[in-house]
Amino acid sequence: MKRSCRKFVGMEQVGGEGKGSPEPPHLGIQVPPKPHLKLGQLWSILAASVVKLIPESRRLAPHASAELVARFDVSRWTIRNILNDYFSQIDQDIIYPDLSGKQISRKGQNSQLDEELATCLMEFNSMAGYRLTISEFTRQFNQVYGTELSVATCQRYMNSLSYSLKSVYIKPKLTLVQIVRRLDFILEKITPLPGGGYAFEDCKNIVHSDEKYFWTKRERYRIRVRLGEEKHPTPSTRHKSHIPKMMFLAVVCVPQLRPDGSRFEGKLCMVPIIQRTPALRSSKNRPAGAEVIECMSLTSDEYLHLFETRIVPAIKIHMAWLKGEQIIVQHDGARPHTGKDNQFLLECVGHADGWNISFRTQPAQSPDLNVLDLTLFHAMQRASDQLRDTNDESLQHLEDSVTLMWQQFDWQTIERGFGVLHEIYRQVLNSGGTNTYKLPHSDVRKRQSDEVEVIDRSVSNQTRLAGEDARDLLVNEAASEDEEESDEEDA
Predict the structure, then answer these.
(1) Which helix or strand (DSSP H or E) is residue 69 part of?
(2) How far is CA 435 from CA 329, 426, 477, in A?
(3) Contact between residue 347 and residue 359 where contact means Cβ atoms under 8 Å apart
(4) Cα 163 vs. chain centroid, distance in angstroms?
(5) Which of 17, 18, 116, 270 has its Cα between 20 and 30 A from that of 240?
(6) Which domains are present in the chain?
(7) Which tens digits make up the pLDDT trace of 390-433?
(8) Beta partners for 291?
(9) Tens digit of each residue's pLDDT (9 = 90 or more) over 213-225
(10) 141 and 133 in contact (C-beta within 8 Å)?
């Protein structure tokens, strides 16, 4: 196999010869031949696997396969073959199963991947290949390095080098001021505990509000067809921008128990932003006088009207035991929320009749700090698509399907969303206020199944200090930039 370290024309040379290019790392890769597993190793793998089986299905428990693969350095197929061989003999009433009948080898065959080829693969992936599909990656790699790798071989080599695909999503670009406000927003939630330590404020009196568009049809979806069966009718529209849609305003809080012991699911209301008017004249679609649904733009007056007539009354009905205590409604800083003195007018509506409902604006470009954007809206969009008949494009059918989904929505999902939200608070502090953090496994499902507190409000002193230090550093950096700009203007 012929290999060279020639690169694309115009690309920075890698390998120590290019100016300013880093020295390729010494990998020390030595791929030994994969020996067959001995009988004792087979029984060790079997013993460790049987303990982690689900008895009813004879399947490994979640995450058990990854633990066994890392422990014994074998593939998932090897573990499954050992279990199948063992249980097939048990089902045949064999008292002493024999695992030596099959020679089950370790992962893969003898590889031709040496240190030079591995270095070339890693260099090419870091320069241009990380965004390519494996087929395009293989084609361009063969052109650049003069190799003749197949797509399957290249994929196997990349797997052996611990490369895997990762989804990358576009996130809002944050300014320096927005990062500082994110840190301030979260640090204000931290309160000291009487016995020492810190924790986030109790969120059982915090209400999250936000809007979302729901469409009558999706641009792309999958259907199940049988081989040779004709496809179902293909949906069509005049233009993608003409797909009918409807805006809904959703309001939720943390699911909790009422004083009488009953369960409040946390769903306050789901309001469509529409207007119902009678048809002025007859048409092929409807007779004169029939009710017509028209989607509206959410203005400041309409937003205030919805809170006066729908949102605040729903809070008073569903959270009546909190009358007199502070209830905080969190929403974003969209113009309909804050324009025309809405912030003051909303406070007046919230403090009427002895209630103490105040409003808090979350930082800009921070949808990850609202539980609706975080979990609820995405889950509801998928679920409403399943309930809705794709052939019916009417707004009435869309409203009915979304309303039905709201009524059937599981309160455990909302509770898990608030649990994940508090984990995001900690990650934002540790990452200096940015949104490039990596969310770790939060164990909210396990805590929920164990019937313990799902929302972990604890904050370590290290995390708190990391957020405060990052905020002070950014504030000083912004102040120095302002001084430099003022000096340039004076000069």
Answers:
(1) helix 64-72
(2) 23, 12, 19
(3) yes
(4) 21
(5) 270
(6) 39-160 (no CATH), 172-201+410-491 (no CATH), 202-219+243-364 (3.30.420)
(7) 567 788 888 888 888 888 888 999 999 999 999 999 999 999 99
(8) 278
(9) 988 877 777 777 7
(10) no
How far, in Å, CA of 417 to CA of 377, rounded? 11
CA–CA gap between residue 346 and residue 361 (Å, rounded): 12
Taken as a whole, the chain contains a residue count of: 491
User: Among candidates 366, 369, 439, 335, which has minimal Cα distance to 179?
Assistant: 366
CA distance 324 to 302: 27
| Maximum Cα–Cα distance across the chain | 94
How many Å apart are CA 175 and CA 433, to the nearest integer?
11
DSSP string for 127-190: HTGGGS-HHHHHHHHHHHH-----HHHHHHHHHHTT---------PPPPHHHHHHHHHHHHTTE
What the block records as the tokens of 95 is 């008292």
What SS3 class is residue 473?
Answer: helix
Distance of alpha carbon 178 from alpha carbon 474, whole angstroms: 11
- Prediction pTM value: 0.71
What type of residue sits at position 366?
A: S
* Range 252-262 burial, b when 16+ CB lie within 10 A, else e: bbbbbeeeeee
**Are the CB atoms for 251 and 211 separated by under 8 Å?**
no
